[in-house]
Amino acid sequence: MACARVPLDEQQVTEPGPLGKERTLPALHPERAEDRCFVPYKPPPEEASPAEVEEFLERAKFITEDLEWLLALPHDKFWCQVVFDESLQRCLDSYLYHAPRGLDLAALPSSPAVADTQRSVHKAVFLTFLRMATHKESKERFITPAVFGEIIYENFLFDIPKILDLCVLFGKGNSQLLHKMIENVFTQQPSYYSDLDETVPTVLQVFDTILDKCGLQCEGAAAMEPMKLNAHKQPTAMTMSQQDLADLIAYLCDSTTTIHAFLDIFPAACSSFYSHGFISRLTSFYETAVPDLEKAVRKRNFDHKSLQDDLWKRLSHSCRKMVEMTHLLLHHTCLQPILEGRENMQTSSEELLQHFTSFLPEKRFLSDYDEQFPIADDISLLQQALPVIDETRTSYLLQGVESAWDSVGRRKPQIQSKTSSSLLSNQGAVGGATAAAASGGFKAPEVREPEGAEAMLEVPRKGNNGAVCPVSGAELESLLSCIRDLLPDLGEGFLLACLQEYDYNSELVINNILEDRLAPNLDKLDRAMPRPVKEELPSVLNNRSNVFDDDEFDVFRRDQVDMSRIWKGRRKGESAKELLNDKQHIEDQRARYQAYETVVDEVIIEPGDSSSAAYDLDDYDDEYDDTYDMNQVGANDLDGDTLLNRRPFTIPQVLRKGKVEEEEEGEEEQEDDTLQNNTNRDQFVQDPALLRERAEARRAAMQQRKGIRPERPSNVAGRPKGQGQTLETFLDRRKKEANKSRVSNHNRRTMADRKRNKGMIPS
């Protein structure tokens, strides 16, 4: 057996040999590995035929059982199997190569069995790689760090392509574990840093390949080579086949998503990408290729609309990831030293401003970058950290950003901008906030960036409990499953409350639960709280209110309805004449109105008739004369008589002395022309000039009372010819010329000629 507190690479074990004789072997020896064949992985079938689904389920079951068996092995047996079993490495490599990525999950069959099996395989593969990247499991089970680094490097247990695939496959929901795993691999084997430096030029070659396939000019040495005369013209994005265009966009989407996931999970790699000029190459590629690809996806005629939608979704996702990659590189290489207050703050700020200046010619990229990460926020952060920055330079950058928005024909959204200096990882956020607090400077608020499909569609959706949440139902179930795999004793209701509190960030929830740093309102909850039952909405029919409720045709409350009363259009066998002659409604109302026909002038009451009591209530004698009763008619009325109110009091003509004075000023103005003594009543009509003069006098008096300035009289005649004209004459003539078209008889002859020319009037 292995000795305690001795690393695995130095342990010796004694076990029986093939002939039964005991022998001593190193703990890591090929003969100690079990003879077990691990089958390679194949992705779920796209066309869910029963045979293919059954084959996938059976193969995935074998893989899951084998990996669970491997994980259950002791420490020494596990490493013997990992190092010396080639079929295991082929199985793990096949999963990293064929496993569906984030945007490929929508194309998978919706069978629950397939989804559960795929999830089981996914979990088993991740736990296997996690154990392979751990050199110390406990105080008794560990490997010497130097030997561990040599084992994983020489046996190709990890390499840069594998690490990239691990990040893109398992990054969502497991970024902290992946960060620790990759950091341990790079720490124990520094040779991976040199491998990463050699990998970056290959990554840059991806952009050149895409530009070459699109027939666009690419940068670098290939761009300087002259084209051969006999070389065929490269197809463009508009002329290549639909399958080639789909493959090209899928290649771009997979590459950008993978690189972004790696840089996001392992920020230490940003320096390697930054040193190779990755930012300038990426922005140049974005400005050159993205508009061409977008134009092809928008304007080409595809066989299926779903293909066009899928390509547009992948291209939009790629654009977002390229912008986020640029921000990650700038943040971890330029902004991070400024936030932490390092010695090279001035150099980092200068490099950041130089990069922003280099973005100015790339109008499309600059506008998209500023939309997600406003440059104004970064410049404001620099001005707070380093007040010595030239304001002229920063103003020039901000004007360039506004010019970029105008040049692309888009309008900058007027929303509260997110601070671009917010940190994308928890460690970076804590470090930056601590440094800012220690330096007594500014504070950089944390902003959670959406990932994956959430970054594509930032539309609030409703969860299972009816509350609005930023993730879909399937994503919420995935987050719950991810947390419960690590913390199975917690209830789903408690986990839902934690996710809602921490903006559905499963990593933050797991970290705070393990470190016992939950919010006070979450500490008070029962950790075994079950999931709340979804409230069913009441039926609309039970709450509706209508004027026709409970009538004879209410089918919602009546089981039996007289269908003979219901017909469509005119009733069969019914004519308009019969309909008009039908007086049934009159017969129905006849009895009601007959009661009003009986008028009794005198009722004879028989003695002893009991019905006569109704006529004794009002014993009124029509022949009674009430002229001289004590009722004083009109005694209590007002003094004003209605007859006097109708006509005003007038002095009799006999009692009048002199002329009658005018009563009101308004009547004097109205009767001025007719009540003068000097008026000759025999003339038929008065002098028009006199009437105009009086009307003008009344108009002037009215304008004077109201304070209206009288209009200046028009003078278009002016002085005689040769004596010159005044300014008023010129203005009056211009006014007449401009307004003479409003006169009804203007251009009468011209319009008549026009009608005659068009044939409206016979010549």
UniProtKB/TrEMBL annotation:
Segments carrying the region annotation (Disordered) are 1-30, 655-763
Query: Record's superkingdom?
Result: Eukaryota
GO annotations under biological process?
regulation of DNA-templated transcription
Q: Acidic residues composition bias: which ranges?
A: 661-674
Cite the CDD domains for this sequence.
Answer: CUE_ASCC2 (cd14364)
Q: Where is the CUE domain?
A: 475-518
Give me the stretches of Basic and acidic residues compositional bias: 20-30, 690-699, 730-740
Any one GO MF term held by the record is: ubiquitin binding
Q: Quote the InterPro entries the UniProt record gives.
A: ASCC2, ASCC2_CUE, CUE, UBA-like_sf
- List the protein's name: Activating signal cointegrator 1 complex subunit 2
